[in-house]
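anyone else get weird line breaks when pasting these?? whatever heres mine. first is seq + tokens for prot A
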Amino acid sequence: MRKFGLLLIVVAMLAFPLCATAGIIGNVDLKASPSYPPNGYAYFSYPTGYNNWVLDYHVSINDGPWSEAFCVEGQDLTTAEVQYTLLTIDASLSTFGLTALNFLEAAAVADYFRNNYFNNNNYKAGAQLAVWESIFDTDFDLTAGAFRASNEYSDEAVLIWDAVKYNIPAYSNTWALAVNPTIVSGQTVGNTPFQNYLVYNPVPIPGAIWLLGSGLLGLVAVRRRRK
């Protein structure tokens, strides 16, 4: 029994640092590859006036394969390799000065696109519009608010939002938030110099913690039944 108790203590000590910094996955080198949809530019207002924006992003993390990504702010775009911090998308985002619900909504949009319209350029553009609308406005309305869009991909954006708006998860196991400049616990996410992204999450930290906790509880239950 003493050995089993000691094992639980050791595992808990190893898990504590992971839980204590659950919001931070780690720093990575990220490269972005932007492109416009096949039918040209999109015109919309953020924060004032109409601008041309990229509606299709891919990123490579630590020189790995290119994967789908979504821009979540309006800063400068660079295709150079830059260091970012990956954050889990959950309630912990509030400790970094962000509104967690906005990013959870954006992650739900990204999930719906990936699960239903992967590699469809029109829906990728629509999903990007829906992500921006989720981040910048409280009510989803592409015709009003801080973010506005009026182009041929608006219908796809509305369709995706209507599919997810009543099913926003408490955390995302499939997407992470990549922020630049890099940060540590206790700091606030900055909005310069480069764009931040939703990236496909290679390390689903919250799920790992839940699995670890479930495993420990299972071990305790088995041990008690054997007594």
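and prot B, same format (seq, then tokens)
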Amino acid sequence: MPRIFTHARSATVIADPGDLISTEYAAGRFNTPCPLPPDDVAVTEALRDTGTMPVAGARLFGLATAQLVLVVSACAVAVVGLLLLGAGSVSGTGVGSVLLVLGAGILVFTVVSARSRRKRLVALATAWQNGWLRFAPARVGAVWVDRRVTHGRANSQGANQDNRYWFRAVAEVHPTDGTPTFTVVTDPFQALANRDGIPHDLVSAPNPVDAFEPEYTNGWTVVRYVAGSKETMAGSATVTTNLSLTQIGAALRAAGVR
């Protein structure tokens, strides 16, 4: 079983680099079957057999787990607010009003977020059903620091300061439909690191040309992209597929990655 790169795998917001999928869906490109050669059937079946497609964990109305938690929390806060308002006491009325407004605000925010997510899910599902959406194994190379966020004031030794690092990595995609390999850079992701930005569970290379040397690899994952020209494939590619680890592992095994 290959080492699976777990970072940047999922997000509440459906990844759509350059809004390419949304744009092509609006233009009607995905309404007809893709005429290009399909992915390896074994990889496709492995993904289908181990989870929902084209994303894992789609909840009620397409909500992500985090969004579902927010909806439940907002409703609970609003109900408590209503109960306090109904109690009739002066203090209860004040607190109840605040809780009711807070619950309503969280609910409105979540609904707006969920509508955006559902719109992208529909576009993804249409592209998947008609063969335009592709999933391929990808070898993840070295990582580098994208940005640092510092909290607190440091003393002369740099103590009492919390440094949080976001990283990027480059992935070499190996399509199973016969098209050549290509590379894609991940979105920024947070990972545990020491004060100097050296990640604890990831490998960084001394310079970019060493990114795919065997000693600097960070494992394998699955990349999602839209079939088409080289520009379309590279421009739409993302490691943030929202697939489960089980699906990724099954797809890698089906593709012969060891």
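btw re prot B: The chain has two domains: 17-57+133-254, 65-122. Helices lie at 20-26, 41-49, 65-87, 90-129, 230-236, 245-254.
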